[in-house]
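Per your request, structure below.
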């Protein structure tokens, strides 16, 4: 029964997108390969669309080498990302912007009863075409189990630039997750992204793989 409910839940967003919509869609894969008890390789693909799928807003590829500082609840990582953005200049025309990004991050996890908390601190060095930018990000993630397989997930992330107008953006997310195995889980959620002069709604479909 759970499998049919899960399938229906993940098909609903694409059914809702049968007509043109301003609601965007992000398809996200996040993976981690354990090398030993201390080292891991992070890999990530994000396919972001202006609509349901096919109208690319951004393609993000990210990887990195991480090291556990304790028993796995504290991880330090050095990473690289490539980002291709397709920004509309008017209703029909786009420009392509390529970005290379180096980043350092620290993740720490803790539990309060059944509540799981994750803090992520990330510092980015961004090479955007001929421009160079620095940015700091703080991420607070929260998860709560509903059953052995279903769980609630939410996060709040703020982005700050090292310029006079420091605020870059703010993301607020809430979703429902399903644990397929001890290595695989998937999530469906809603995110609102606040920018300086606007905000945008997104449906996020996420897959996580640890191996």
């Amino acid at each position: 029964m759970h499998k049919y409910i899960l399938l229906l839940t993940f098909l609903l967003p694409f059914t809702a997108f049968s007509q043109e919509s301003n609601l965007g869609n992000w398809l996200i894969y996040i993976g981690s390969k354990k090398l030993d008890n201390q080292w891991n390789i992070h890999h990530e693909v994000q396919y972001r669309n202006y609509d349901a799928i096919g109208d690319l807003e951004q393609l993000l590829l990210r990887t990195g080498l991480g090291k556990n500082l304790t028993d796995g609840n504290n991880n330090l990582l050095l990473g690289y990302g490539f980002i291709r953005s397709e920004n509309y200049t008017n209703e029909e025309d786009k420009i392509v912007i390529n970005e290379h990004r180096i980043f350092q991050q620290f993740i720490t996890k803790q539990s309060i009863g059944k509540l799981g908390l994750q803090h992520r601190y990330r510092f980015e060095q961004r090479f955007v075409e001929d421009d160079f930018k620095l940015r700091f990000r703080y991420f607070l993630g929260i998860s709560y189990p509903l059953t052995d397989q279903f769980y609630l997930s939410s996060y709040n992330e703020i982005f700050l630039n090292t310029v006079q107008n420091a605020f870059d953006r703010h993301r607020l997310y809430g979703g429902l997750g399903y644990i397929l195995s001890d290595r695989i889980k998937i999530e469906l959620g809603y995110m609102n992204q606040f920018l300086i002069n606007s905000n945008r709604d997104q449906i996020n479909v996420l897959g996580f793989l640890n191996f």
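Confidence is low (pLDDT under 50) at residues 3-20.

Regards,
D.
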